[in-house]
Design a protein that fits this description.
Blueprint: E1 2-4, E2 14-20, E3 24-33, H1 38-49, E4 54-67, H2 68-84, E5 86-92, H3 94-102
Parallel strand pairs: 3-4, 4-5
Antiparallel strand pairs: 1-4, 2-3
Helix pairs in contact: 1-2
Organism: Amycolatopsis coloradensis
GO molecular function: anti-sigma factor antagonist activity
Family: Belongs to the anti-sigma-factor antagonist family.
């Protein structure tokens, strides 16, 4: 299952730490999340969240394409955050929200609007 809002070449993936406080971190994700970029998304996001507690916000409003490997990353992050005492929130783009909705993950992932 893949969701795409654009036509043409895939957009490169960008993962950056946008904001950090003593009890929260926001990670911004932009570009396309697919089988070739999802391992990098997982690795870079885990590195940014390592040793953290509190709240982690994954801002995916800049994502224009997301396939099942991207949803798998969100599930893996959700589980590892829960085990580490981090509250994970996902701020999805329309594409990511639709993928989460269609796969029944709205009850599993904490989706912020």
């Amino acid at each position: 299952m893949a969701f795409n809002t654009g036509i043409g070449h895939p957009a490169p993936l960008a993962v950056i730490e946008a904001e950090r406080s003593h009890d929260a971190v926001t990670v911004e994700v932009a570009g396309d999340v697919d089988i070739s970029t999802s391992p990098r998304l997982l690795t870079e996001t885990r590195a940014l969240l390592a040793g953290r507690t509190g709240v982690a916000v994954i801002d995916m409003t800049g994502v224009g394409f997301c396939d099942s490997s991207g949803l798998s990353v969100l599930l893996q992050l959700s589980r590892s955050c829960a085990e580490s005492g981090i509250e994970l929130k996902v701020v999805p783009s329309k594409v990511v929200y639709r993928a989460i909705e269609l796969t029944g993950l709205l009850s599993t992932l904490r989706v912020a609007e």
